[in-house]
Structure formats: structure tokens, C-alpha cells
Amino acid sequence: MNAFLQASSDNNTDAIKHILKIIALAVRTEIEGFHIKHFSDNQMKELNPLIRQGVYNALFAYANVTEIVIQRNLFITLIQQYQIIRRTPIPILLLAICF
To answer: What does the alpha-carbon distance between residue 13 and residue 51 come to, in Å, rounded to a whole number?
Structure first.
């Protein structure tokens, strides 16, 4: 069982918050160059909580889906959307985290 699912099943809110911060920080770090070119610091202050909430919503949905078929279908859909938007293969790390 991955760390998030374990923390979720144990209702360990401290562990959940820690995992969410790590993921949100990774996302935030990844868009730093975009921030510098296109967003002010004040705009980023507004965007950061949205990133954290989006990460939380995705992980919460993942942890609370009861049927593995639904999880995989959703994941496949997300992969397809990612590939269409980015026109690149999905990073192998994302696949490793999700399965």
C-alpha cells in the first residue's frame, strides 16, 4: 500500500498533509520558470493554494475509489489527456507512483 493510501486509511492527517506538501512543492518547483516569465509573486500566492487543493482532491479521490476498474479507467483517461495536452509521453515516475 502506498504511503498516501496508508495514511488515509489510518486517518493520519499529519502524514497526509506532509505528503500533500511534498507533491505540491514538486509541482510548484516544476512551474517556477513559468512563474518567472508570466506571473507576479502576488499571482503565485493565489495559485499556490489552488495547486495544493488540486493535489489534495486528486489524492482524496484516488484513496476513496472503491473499485480498481474505476481507478484504472480514470488514470488511463488522465494519461490520455496529459499526452494530448503536452504531446509527450507521461513521465514514468507518475506511473510508478500511481500503481
So the answer is: 18
